[in-house]
Design a protein that fits this description.
alpha/beta; Rossmann fold; four-stranded antiparallel beta sheet; 37% helix
């Protein structure tokens, strides 16, 4: 078994009397892409928010690289090796595409976010940022402001910034949502490249079954905030749990 990079134990959050995530325990390993699926309202994004620190847990724990990070802030988890695309979006919306990526690289190298340190003399940082933009096919747009980009290109920039952060755990929440048929393959190919490196773990919330079939090593199913299934993609997708969830039928005895 490869190294466990991320683990949740009995992770739970309550909003008033509603349990949105109910004691979910999962371990995620290096070299593994796990798709998290379930019907609307199943708790997928809330589970993501608990892992990334967007919301505090009511009970349970989150561990990253063997260290418990349950009390860590979003920024602390990011520095510890957890990366989620939307955390980085529009860091400086009125700066250029290149400057946004370069800022992430500066932060990753502990050079800070000082605008005074963004001069073009930072040749090495600029070269690295341009290489990342080339990977996501945004190199021709490096001088455009983030606010000038189309929705699809903003999503590609999210991925670029996440790659620049170089986390051990990548989290993608519907990465191709709102993208055109021409734009989506670029992001999916990048996720496939990251998976092929076999050193990181990738979590993917996705509704498109063709994407899941192409990328997932493992599927976990959430229903009413609880873990309903976990295993091989073919077996899980053929299970009654998934069939009923995606056919809109009521799940019983889960």
């Amino acid at each position: 078994m490869s190294q466990t990079l991320l683990e949740t134990k009995d992770l739970t959050v309550r909003f008033g009397g509603h349990v949105a995530v109910d004691a979910v325990s999962c371990a995620f390993h290096a070299g593994e892409l796990t798709a998290i699926v379930g019907p609307n309202g199943a708790g997928k994004t809330t589970y993501f928010n608990l892992i990334s620190g967007q919301i505090p847990a009511s009970a349970g724990s989150v561990s990253l690289l063997g260290e418990e990070v349950t009390k860590f802030s979003v920024a602390q988890r990011c520095r510890a090796g957890l990366g989620r695309a939307f955390q980085l979006t529009n860091l400086f919306p009125n700066l250029s595409v290149l400057e946004n990526v370069r800022l992430v690289i500066q932060a990753h190298r502990n050079k800070g976010f000082s605008l005074l340190s963004m001069a073009d003399s930072h040749h090495e940082l600029t070269v690295e940022a341009r290489a990342v933009l080339e990977r996501v096919r945004l190199d021709t747009m490096e001088d455009q402001k983030v606010t000038e980009l189309s929705h699809g290109n903003q999503r590609k920039l999210e991925v670029a910034m996440l790659i620049a952060l170089d986390p051990m755990v990548y989290m993608f929440d519907e990465p191709t949502a709102g993208m055109s048929a021409d734009e989506a393959p670029v992001v999916l190919d990048l996720i496939a490249e990251l998976k092929a490196e076999r050193e990181r773990t990738i979590l993917l919330v996705e509704h498109k079954m063709d994407v899941i079939r192409a990328l997932a090593d493992r599927i976990i199913v959430l229903h009413n905030g609880a873990l309903a299934a976990d295993g091989d993609p073919a077996e899980v997708m053929a299970s009654d749990v998934v069939q009923e969830a995606y056919m809109g039928k009521a799940l019983e005895n889960v």
